[in-house]
């Protein structure tokens, strides 16, 4: 199922989320010289495209890896990914919803592999 998953998430919102995470931990909120522009371009180009959920989560992960901000890139994009799936989670039993939410966050942050996400998405389709 393809959707405009990122339509309501302009890059400015991404930056505000990162700024809030940094402020909460007294960390510097600043764009990086290498990753900011490529991540912003990838993100903005993706907002107008219909994507599968998997493609959307891959974009979140890619943006995290590009490290557009000095701190909390993983937290920023994982928070967005977990928020994007809220409607899906409401349709699931609580334990399964908790597990899927966790898998999404960990996948975006790079702490689990594509294999685990594929298994979770397969379970979601069933």
Explain what the structure shows.
With 126 residues, the protein is mainly alpha-helical. The chain has one domain. Helices cover 67% and strands 0% of the residues. It has seven helices and no strands. α4 packs antiparallel against α6. The chain is globular and about 45 Å long.
Percentage of β-strand residues: under 5%
Main beta sheet, described? none
Q: Please write the string of helix (H) and strand (E) elements.
A: HHHHHHH
Give the domain tally: 1
| Overall average pLDDT | 96
Instruction: Give the overall silhouette.
Output: globular
Please give the count of helices. 7
The total count of strands amounts to 0
- Amino- and carboxy-terminal Cα gap: 14 Å
Secondary-structure-based class equals mainly alpha
User: What does the radius of gyration come to?
Assistant: 14 Å
